[in-house]
Sequence to fold (489 residues):
Amino acid sequence: MQRRELLAAGFSALLGAPALATAPAGFAAGAPELAPLAGWDGQGREAGGLRIEGRLPPGLRGVYYRNGPGLMARAGRRYEHWFDGDGLLQAWHFEDGGVRHQARFVNTNKFRAEQEAGRFLLPTLGTAIKPELPIRGADSLNTANTSVMQLDGRLYALWEGGSAYELDGQNLQTRGPKAWAPDLQGMPFSAHPKLEPDGTLWNFGTMNGRLVVYQISPRGQLLRHAVLKLPVPAMVHDFVVSQRHLIFLLPPLSLDMQAVRAGQSMVQAMRWQAGEATRVLVIDKADFQRQRLLEMPATMMFHFGNAWDEGDEIHLDYVRSPPMTEFNVEAGQMMRGERPAESASTPAVLHLSLASGRLRQDSRDEAVEFPVVDPRVVAQRHRQVFYTHAADAGGRWGANALMRLDLDSGRRERFVFGADVVVEEHVLVPKPGSQREGEGWLVGMGYDLRRRLSFASVFDAQALSAGPLARVWLPYWVPYGFHGKFYAS
Fold:
């Protein structure tokens, strides 16, 4: 099957701030931590001279980019799933004169058309909207709302279902979708690329039972790619890279295409096959045709930390999640402003023997998500993983703490903000001149329920329990995002 035919086949079944959106009747945030899910109305924001509580490290200079769903409602209709919102890209500029903030919506083809029309025109993952525009492929539905990357000085907003969208890194103006090669135009490029310390970037995309694998140079040139057949249909959000391998966990989650054709959203049509295995697909980086397929009990995951090879064994850490179908119910409740009975995701380490085909798993019980590692150890032996963490939050939704886990000793360190803060993903920024893993700062965002304001926080990554070195306050709140990256200057 040709790549453009693959695209067509994959979508043939889918016929207190001035920027605050007017929430329709479908949203009433009785739970204060859900208020940012009201979303903005499609207009960006800027603020300079931000108030700094504490003291920023003098070596922390650069831009922290962050992406997430920002627009949730139009013309009285509200999206039914958190993943549906149009991408809102933020830039936190840490400069000698202080910190300034920018936020703009990614001007995708979908966003632009719906802004002009003043209403939703196209279906999304979780909301069955009758299309009023032709669906010519993945990019007709691209929300560019999940993550961000900078490569060879170019900035991209990422969404796992379609193309990366290029933006101007200075003013966040949208330039347009990126094609890594003429015959890859419109092919999916996931929101979780892996950048090795030498600058080599690996990524993937899935569609219609196929897996696209990319290897890209530090200069942004496509070195190799392949379109491979998946052993089973699967939803793949993230993957992990070791010294010699690309590793994918394929959970037993199927899509009822008959239900989609009958008018259900893709979320409504997902089916969890609890009695089937999660497949572990291992691909040799030197030869994409050399593959191993292992099995483990049915397990759902969104995010990985890192992986490394040790002889014929592969070790990787990830976060075990509830089945996607359970999460989708919670996401729907959140989008109505209802506090969900949230089920916890927990840390796990998987050990694979390629010689014997055996798998062994170590698990913990802390409620965590959004694992990150030091960027200097990607695809190498690592010891430390950093998470958002829910710690005695009194039953409310979301994380309220950060946690550092030592994979070797099992020891953890954490800082708990308290029940009045929702903390989002934090990334590790190495200290200039440092060499040791984890020697750096954790930088990320949070939302203060009492003040109804968003902030950026900065921690010494090796002294989490001491609390933030600094918090930088916005004069407004921002919708909750997903992933970000810090690029030092």
About this structure: The radius of gyration is 21 Å. The chain has one domain: 3-488. Residues 1-24 have pLDDT under 50 and may be disordered.
